[in-house]
Design a protein that fits this description.
Oligomer: single chain
Keywords: Antioxidant, Disulfide bond, Oxidoreductase, Peroxidase, Redox-active center
Strand content: under 5%
Structural class: mainly alpha
Order of helices and strands: HHHHHHHHHHH
CATH class: Mainly Alpha
Distance between the termini: 11 Å
CATH superfamily: AhpD-like
EC number: 1.11.1.28
Number of domains: 1
Enzyme class: oxidoreductase
Pfam family, one: CMD
Radius of gyration: 17 Å
Function: Antioxidant protein with alkyl hydroperoxidase activity. Required for the reduction of the AhpC active site cysteine residues and for the regeneration of the AhpC enzyme activity.
CATH topology: AhpD-like
Length: about 190
């Protein structure tokens, strides 16, 4: 499975997703590692096996083993943090939650195995997929401090948005046909 097979699997009504998937895969603005890591992290956040397999196959070779692990770690740690910090944010007026320590291990954030800015970018992409405003704001702030432009940050979120939409479309079509993309390809 590859990026092309994923695009082929999308129905005609999702033509814009096909076009966006293709253009974002090669769009300049981010380094190859940053772009590939965004695709991998967003794929894991999408929770769709077909999308994960296709984007992993497409982008794995563009990442060092350490960067590949870090992209997956960003999806894992943000899967936890996005729930926790979304709760804290939703509690709004109950400020005691904001002052309580999270008491959750987050060691990978301090030592992700790649440049901090790359890990922050991947964490932002996952946080956008998971809808955690508090985490999106925090990662965007760190990325700006790290020297990334608004356009670079936007590109990571655009990747996350398209990957998420592709996963939702693939799942919808599989639900209607009663099979997964992998089963349909056999």
């Amino acid at each position: 499975m590859s990026l092309e097979s994923l695009k082929t699997a999308l129905p005609e009504y999702a033509r814009d997703l096909k076009l966006n998937l293709g253009s974002l895969a090669t769009e300049p603005g981010l380094t190859e590692q940053q772009r590939a890591g965004c695709f991998i992290a967003a794929a894991y956040a999408s929770r769709n096996a077909d999308v994960i397999r296709a984007l992993y196959a497409e982008f794995e070779s563009k990442l060092s083993p350490e960067a590949l692990t870090a992209a997956k770690a960003a999806a894992a740690i943000m899967g936890m943090n996005n729930i926790y910090y979304r709760f804290v944010h939703m509690m709004g007026g109950a400020s005691d939650y904001k002052t309580l320590p999270a008491k959750l291990r987050m060691n990978v954030i301090g030592k992700p195995g790649v440049e901090k800015v790359d890990f922050e970018l991947w964490s932002l992409a996952v946080s956008a997929v998971n809808g955690c405003g508090m985490c999106v704001e925090a990662h965007e702030h760190e990325l700006r401090k790290g020297g990334l432009t608004a356009e670079q940050i936007q590109q990571a979120v655009r990747i996350a948005a398209v990957v998420h939409a592709v996963a939702a479309t693939i799942e919808g079509e599989a639900a209607m046909s009663g099979s997964s993309l992998a089963e349909a390809a056999e």
